[in-house]
Amino acid sequence: MTEPPTETALQKAAEHIQAGRLVAFPTETVYGLGADATNAEAVAAIFSAKERPSFNPLIIHVASAEAAERLVVFDDRATVLAEANWPGALTLVLPRREDCPVSRLAGAGLDTLALRVPAHVLAQQFLDAVGVPIAAPSANRSGTVSPTTADHVRESLGNGVDMIIDDGPCQIGLESTIVDLTTDTPTLLRAGGVTVELLERQIGEIQSTTDDDTAPKAPGMLSRHYATSIPLRMDAMELRDGEAMLAFGGRTLGPAPASCNLSRGGDVKEAAANLFDMMRQLDKPEYSGIAVMEIPETGLGRAINDRLRRASR
Ligand code: TXA
Ligand code: MG
């Protein structure tokens, strides 16, 4: 499963990614756990492997700033930061393009995406070989430290990953710096491989978040998350007047003005892949609310329920 960084390994990695499987790869910061960002089921597999109790948005890795501009809308600050720091240890949060093919799950339902162009030679070759944007969090189980060697990845994720490309220890060994450019004054979301002082010399003031900005924001702690504009009700046993239905499994609550099924087969991974798209589909003013059927608290079911709970407040 662990392979040295050869041409054959890169080809194999590309086949895994095309098949919706997970590949751990080195970047100059830490090892990433990569999947095709446009494939929601593959992205769901990332959350499942990390055993994360909630969905937090993932960094989308691309080979160049041009590739990034096809996914998100750049402003002048983004152009300056990208030219000065990419490829490198900087992640930029920008608004999604209307036609952005990245799955909603990868961005945890947000209208923004975090983009990064890594400098690591093998990471670049990997991104070229796969030809799709790669969603990748650090390749460790949730709540453990980020991996800076292939051994760390293997110890932390074990069989949760289909392939690990081993290209030795990461040079920086610290995650990328994350700057949110969707606020009037750019906001530092995480300190990391590139210093804020350097970035401020390039674009001026960068504000800190009010909480501890040296630590990555805890999963689900992002102040902004996708909330429906109409009421959402969990564990619904019946339909109320005018409610749209978000079903799970083979049952139904009866005829609804609109309905979606997260997974007819009762598969929580499939449900996770569909969650944000279906929430958006049913979030229409013509319905009185969204009735969501009970989803088991197993595997990704916990993360789904966590997100629904936030949306139901
Ligand atoms: O160095 C790194 O950044 C590594 C390598 C693999 O690229 N990746 C990494 O990913 O550290 P992860 O998932 O462990 O941390 C990503 C952070 C999360 O804390 C998340 O909240 C934030 O990025 N993030 C991602 N998308 C976001 C968005 N649209 N808005 C705000 N924060 C976002
Ligand atoms: Mg991490």
CATH architecture annotation of the largest domain: Alpha-Beta Complex
- DSSP E strands, number: 15
CATH topology description of the largest domain: DHBP synthase
Radius of gyration: 20 Å
Q: Assign the CATH class of the largest domain.
A: Alpha Beta
Name the helix and strand elements from N-terminus to C-terminus, one letter apiece.
Answer: EHEEHEHHEEHEHEEEHEEEEHEH
Distance between the termini: 44 Å
Summed over residues and divided by their number, the pLDDT gives a mean of 93
How many structural domains does the protein architecture include? Answer: 2
Apparent shape: globular
Bound molecules: threonylcarbamoyladenylate, magnesium ion
Structural class: alpha/beta
- Strand residue percentage: 15-25%
Relevant CATH superfamily of the largest domain:
DHBP synthase
Strand order of the largest sheet: 1-8-2-3-7-4-6-5-9-10-11
Largest beta-sheet characterization: 11 strands, mixed
The percent of residues in helical segments reads: 25-40%
Low-pLDDT ranges = 212-221
Structure in words:
This protein is an alpha/beta fold and 313 residues long. It folds into two domains: 2-208, DHBP synthase (Alpha-Beta Complex), CATH 3.90.870; 232-312, Rossmann fold (3-Layer(aba) Sandwich). The protein is 29% helix and 17% strand. The chain has nine helices and 15 strands. The chain has helices at residues 7-18, 40-50, 65-69, 76-85, 121-130, 150-157, 196-203, 268-282, 301-311; strands at residues 2-3, 23-25, 32-36, 59-61, 90-95, 112-116, 134-135, 163-165, 177-180, 187-190, 207-208, 232-233, 243-247, 259-261, 289-292. Strands 1-8-2-3-7-4-6-5-9-10-11 form an eleven-stranded mixed sheet, with helices on both faces. A four-stranded parallel sheet has the order 12-15-13-14, with helices on one face. Helix 7 (196-203) links the parallel strand 10 and strand 11 (207-208). Helix 1 (7-18) crosses helix 5 (121-130) and helix 2 packs across helix 8 (268-282). The longest helix has 15 residues, at 268-282. It is globular. Mean pLDDT is 93; it is low at 212-221.
